Amino acid sequence: MAVTLESPESAGCATEQGELSSRAAAEAFIGGVCFKLGPPALIGAELEWLTVQGECSASGPSAAPRPQLSALADALGPYAPRSIAPDSPALTLPGGSRVTLEPGGQIELSSAPYDAAAQLCDRLRDDARLLRELLESRAIRPVSVAADADRRPKRLLQLPRYRAMERSFGGIGPFGKLMMCNTAATQVSVDAGADRADVTARWTALYAVGPALLAAFACSPVLRGAPPGTWASQRMRAWLRLDNARTRPPVLDWTDPVAAYGRWALDVPLLCVRGPGDEAERGDGAEWSAPPGATFADWLSGALDDEVGRRPDTGDLVYHLTTLFPPVRASGHLEVRYIDAQPGDGWTVPVHVFDALMSSPEVVAEASSIAAPQAGRWVDAARYGLADPDIRACAVALLRLAAEHTATDDAARAVESAAERCRRGRTPTEDATEHLDPRPPEAVT
């Protein structure tokens, strides 16, 4: 769901100058910004693709150079994001999707929110088709794989945010740069809930079903540059290993996600401290460094006065929230981030699955009950995928529950087909390959 984190006009916890008076005020501000309450009605999605420029290679779908940023800007024209074309109007595509770029040249479509999953899929599919046509005008091709098996990681965007990110993650291990430059995801967003009890139920369900659905849609067994090891989802392996404090909140202990998310967010180390003005975001060489290990709470308390020279305001807090990468992120809505990019148009299946599983409080409760025995098994799901019999059985049960509650017959058939695929222990890529002609995968993205 393409909704930017924004400060509510009257959060009740910030001064007119946007200052934060205390930790309690900051936690309350996060609760108001990250969890928008109201009857659940909308669904959105974000799709990512690796990109290559030039001729197809027989050695692998991504075995071609990354595109030049100037070529991407030329191809996208008025739809180009300002990260690569500062003077671009950055128009949305006809179906309402925004185009953005990830650090390694991955291209992303962020949909508008819709009140029906079928409408979302139709509009996003149309925008994806137009995006491919625009890119092909400069011999650039989107590749629908979740992990780059062919190229070493290389960062194209020189924005201070990404320099700070690479520097921070680089001190932990290789997974930060791999995640930034060589992975792609399918993300689905749903409304947070009608009230705090509803938010808690929906949040709990999305985390509980996570390991099983991660395994159900895992299709990234090879990631060049990753340490040795056999994993069903090398993409999720990278996320789980790059920075535990930032990517793995202790949600199993949270009885009130609205309050707990605020406490957790303030105690995550700062990724960066923004410099003044917009020009820094455009890659003018500015550095957005942060004192190592210092948290937002430290900055708020005055512990960083000497190093930073100022206290944070609500804009700094909102920006800090965008540097948190849990499997489900609270961004006003709930953003599910644990699904691999799917082959072809396979991304429509997880969209329908989450739409169905969140369709009523009763279905939410049943999904949580089914998934409870496997909740928290993120590493096992990423490593073994459907080869783990308990995770596979849970995935099949969840998909069959979803198939019973989809909004259309076509969606039900697609989700039931995915359940049968999982029952057979087959990945989305294996299933797609079985039904496709011999063209290279990116030719049928």
Order of helices and strands: HEHEEHEHHEHHHHHHHHEEHHHHHH
Structural class: alpha+beta
Strand segment count: 7
The rounded distance between the terminal residues' Cα atoms is 21 Å
Helix content: 40-55%
- Helical segment tally? 19
Biggest pleated sheet: 7 strands, antiparallel
Indicate the mean pLDDT: 91
Provide the β-strand percentage band: 5-15%
Q: What form results from the Cα inertia axes?
A: globular
Rg measurement, Å: 21 Å
Low-confidence stretches: 1-17, 436-445
Task: Outline the structure in words.
The chain is globular. Helices cover 42% and strands 9% of the residues. The model is unreliable at 1-17 and 436-445 (pLDDT under 50). Strand 6 and strand 7 (333-340) form a beta hairpin. With 445 residues, the chain is of the alpha+beta class. Strands 1, 2, 3, 4, 5, 6 and 7 form a seven-stranded antiparallel β-sheet that branches. The protein has 19 helices and seven strands.
Helix-strand blueprint:
Elements: H1 23-34, E1 43-53, H2 69-76, E2 98-101, E3 107-110, H3 117-136, E4 140-143, H4 160-170, H5 175-182, E5 185-190, H6 196-208, H7 210-216, H8 234-242, H9 244-247, H10 257-266, H11 296-301, H12 305-308, H13 314-321, E6 328-331, E7 333-340, H14 348-357, H15 361-371, H16 378-384, H17 389-404, H18 409-423, H19 428-435
Antiparallel strand pairs: 1-3, 1-4, 1-5, 2-3, 5-7, 6-7
Structure described in brief:
42% of the residues lie in helices and 9% in strands.
Question: Top keywords for this entry?
Answer:
single chain, disordered N terminus, 19 helices, seven-stranded antiparallel β-sheet, 445 residues, alpha+beta
